[in-house]
Design brief:
Strand order of the largest sheet: 2-1-4-6-7-10
Oligomer: single chain
Radius of gyration: 18 Å
Structural class: alpha/beta
Order of helices and strands: EHEEEHEEHEHEHHEHE
Number of domains: 2
Number of strands: 10
Strand content: 15-25%
CATH class of the largest domain: Alpha Beta
Low-confidence stretches: none
CATH architecture of the largest domain: 3-Layer(aba) Sandwich
CATH superfamily of the largest domain: Flavodoxin domain
CATH topology of the largest domain: Rossmann fold
Bound molecules: flavin mononucleotide
Helix content: 25-40%
Shape: globular
Length: 249
């Protein structure tokens, strides 16, 4: 196992990316940067792993913005995208390109599958045991590559120009069972929910990441059921056959 300092930067509103990151990390003592919060500008030593979800075949803009606070100086980096079994399209290339622009040298990359955070029946239970075994082996290979000071570059799939970010014209609903505890407002990665009026969501800031839905103890927040139903029907056609992790090293 490498003794090189390892930093993991994760954007994981509903926990899928977090599970994948943990499965890859070579030991539990890695330094963490939470991209769901503001990130202070800093330079990164050792190796950086960035783990982000795929939204509409792209990396969420807010995750890219916060990643820009992390600067490398030819520092080795690992690009990991996590998607809900439909497709990751241009997201891995976008993450690779972004890390490179921030001064990192991308020496490994991967795409993993996790439960779809909007339609939870899609890829249910992923990452599963087999995914985590692939992730752990990937982490070991990254550590070995870093220890050997092997800085050889990798290529990842994707197209430039990137596909357009789809706009989903939907607002999260709040049920009467909301007691205004403000947990959703505190944990919202984009500040779209005001702590004073947590039953309101600013549609201009909301990226539909589903964090407020998943952290509400009273299950008082949800997407309009017809929207979820429509997505479920579409995803059942294109995302029901289990995809497998892809590794680039
Ligand atoms: C707004 C939004 C868009 C998404 N777009 C895609 C997509 O294009 N392809 C896909 O396979 N999964 C897609 N997903 C599913 C997520 O990529 C997947 O559930 C991921 O694990 C979420 O990460 P998290 O659990 O760390 O929040 C999308 C999810 C959301 C909320």
């Amino acid at each position: 196992m490498s003794t090189t300092e390892w930093t993991t930067a994760v954007f994981s509103p509903t926990g899928g990316c977090e599970k994948v990151a943990k499965a890859i990390e070579p030991n539990p003592s890695v330094r963490r940067v939470d991209l769901c919060e503001h990130v202070e500008p800093q330079s990164v030593q050792g190796v950086l792993m960035a783990v982000v979800p795929v939204y509409g075949g792209r990396v969420p803009e807010v995750a890219l913005e916060r990643l820009r606070a992390l600067r490398g100086d030819g520092t080795p980096a690992v690009a990991v995208v996590v998607y809900g079994n439909r497709a990751y399209e241009d997201a891995l290339l976008e993450l690779h390109t972004e890390l490179t622009a921030n001064g990192f040298k991308v020496i490994a990359a991967a795409a993993f599958i996790a439960e779809h955070s909007i339609v939870r029946t899609i890829a249910k239970g992923r990452p599963n045991e087999a995914d985590c075994a692939v992730a752990a082996e990937f982490g070991r290979r990254v550590s070995a590559k870093v220890a050997a000071e092997d800085m050889s570059a990798i290529c990842v799939p994707g197209n430039i120009p990137y596909r357009e970010r789809p706009r989903i014209p939907v607002t999260i609903l709040t049920l009467d069972s909301c007691r205004g505890c403000g947990r959703c407002a505190r944990l919202c990665p984009t500040g779209a929910i005001s702590p004073a009026t947590p039953d309101k969501t600013d549609p201009a800031k909301c990226i539909l990441c589903m964090r407020c839905v998943s952290v509400c103890f009273r299950r008082a927040r949800l997407l309009p059921p017809p929207v979820v139903e429509g997505m479920m029907q579409r995803l059942n056609l294109v995302a029901s056959e289990p995809k497998q992790p892809e590794i680039f090293i």
